[in-house]
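stage 2 :: seqdesign
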């Protein structure tokens, strides 16, 4: 299906197909490099941010390897300038943003896209932000036709599409369980640290946002979906210690399951970090707990964030050595399946790939006729799965019993 026809008449005649907002940040620049190398020649895309000088330097860098980027449009907009964001959202069919922490810098852009009928993508791993945006803007996005898709990077594409892929290997119409076990050797950037500390320091606000969402969300009738945190345990399936990961990932998987009947009448998902040695598992759990406690004290939280300022991250050599793997164990209807999603540097190289391919998917692929706040599995499903496989992220069935 022709991309312009897919969006008729909602976004017909817009100046751009894709706008990348926050393009000069660490992940933003990697995403721009990916688009420069992989966007179709006729793709009308633009870079956006608050500092035109930085945008110009990024464009020069892109043009050194992709000469067609020499005249790439540059759009100035500040994350807290509502008027500029409305203009930005109205100019494009798809708007991808890397500007976080999203709880500070994301709400106005979601509002602008929901009102304009513009498809929106981000990299958030912040449950509070996702819940607040659902309450505030899901209904308006449904009316305008906008697809608001959060967590289009390592949070939470491997978990969401990995569970979706695993469910596809199991019988339909029966209760299903899926467990995900994540491993990686990657390091994080200053922006990621700031976002994590911000989320850890907002416990009461996070709980309030979750309660508000439950009041607004329609009840699931005739089906059951669960995403329990679980407890640390030894996993015979992976021969590792499984430490529960209370991240956004299991919530995203559960929302995909609630929206898609293919997940069966009773679905349960649990999400773990997979650790080879028990002392490492215990030490990691203690370190996260201690950091969460320290993050409650604003001066300490700021001191921790200042150790690695936003905009900095691992260099190309370190990213080249990084990898991730999420193994899934799915059961149902007398069948058991072992699957795996794996790739390179998860937080940066592969995250940029996931975000860029998600934007291209929304812009160019024939997709389900859905709108509102959605997950990647619900909004893009097989189309994004196919794109990511072609881009080098591996989805495979390891074994079945």
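stage 2 :: out
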């Amino acid at each position: 299906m022709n991309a312009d026809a897919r969006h008729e008449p909602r976004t017909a005649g817009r100046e751009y197909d894709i706008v990348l907002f926050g393009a000069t940040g660490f992940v933003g620049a990697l995403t721009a490099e990916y688009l420069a190398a992989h966007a179709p020649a006729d793709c009308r895309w633009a870079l956006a941010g608050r500092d035109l000088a930085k945008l110009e330097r990024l464009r020069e860098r892109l043009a050194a390897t992709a000469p067609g980027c020499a005249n790439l449009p540059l759009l100035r907009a500040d994350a807290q300038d509502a008027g500029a964001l409305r203009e930005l959202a109205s100019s494009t069919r798809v708007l991808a943003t890397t500007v976080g922490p999203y709880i500070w810098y994301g709400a106005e852009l979601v509002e602008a896209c929901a009102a304009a009928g513009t498809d929106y993508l981000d990299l958030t791993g912040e449950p509070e932000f996702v819940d607040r945006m659902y309450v505030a803007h899901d209904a308006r996005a449904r009316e305008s036709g906008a697809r608001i898709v959060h967590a289009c990077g390592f949070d939470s594409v491997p978990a969401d599409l990995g569970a979706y892929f695993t469910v596809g290997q199991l019988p339909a119409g029966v209760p299903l369980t899926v467990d995900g076990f994540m491993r990686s050797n990657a390091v994080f950037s200053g922006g990621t640290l700031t976002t994590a500390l911000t989320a850890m320091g907002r416990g009461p606000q996070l709980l309030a946002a979750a309660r508000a969402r439950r009041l607004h969300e329609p009840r699931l009738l005739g089906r059951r979906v669960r995403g329990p945190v679980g407890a640390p345990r030894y996993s015979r399936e992976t021969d590792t210690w499984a430490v529960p990961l209370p991240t956004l990932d299991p919530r995203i998987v559960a929302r995909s399951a609630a929206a898609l009947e293919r997940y069966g009448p009773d679905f349960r998902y649990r999400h773990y970090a997979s650790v080879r040695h028990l002392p490492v598992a215990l030490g990691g759990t203690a370190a996260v707990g201690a950091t969460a406690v320290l993050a409650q004290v604003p001066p300490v939280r700021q001191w921790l964030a200042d150790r690695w300022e936003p905009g900095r991250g691992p260099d190309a050599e370190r990213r080249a050595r990084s990898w991730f793997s999420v193994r899934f164990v799915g059961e149902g209807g007398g069948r058991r399946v072992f699957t795996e999603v794996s790739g390179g540097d998860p937080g940066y190289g592969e995250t940029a790939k996931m975000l860029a391919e998600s934007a291209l998917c929304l812009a160019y692929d024939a997709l389900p006729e859905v709108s509102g706040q959605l997950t990647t599995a619900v909004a893009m499903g097989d189309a994004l799965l196919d794109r990511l496989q072609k881009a080098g992220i591996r989805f495979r069935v390891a074994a079945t019993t």
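stage 3 :: structure notes
- Residues 1-7, 285-297 have pLDDT under 50 and may be disordered.
- Residues 211 and 264 are 26 Å apart (CA to CA).
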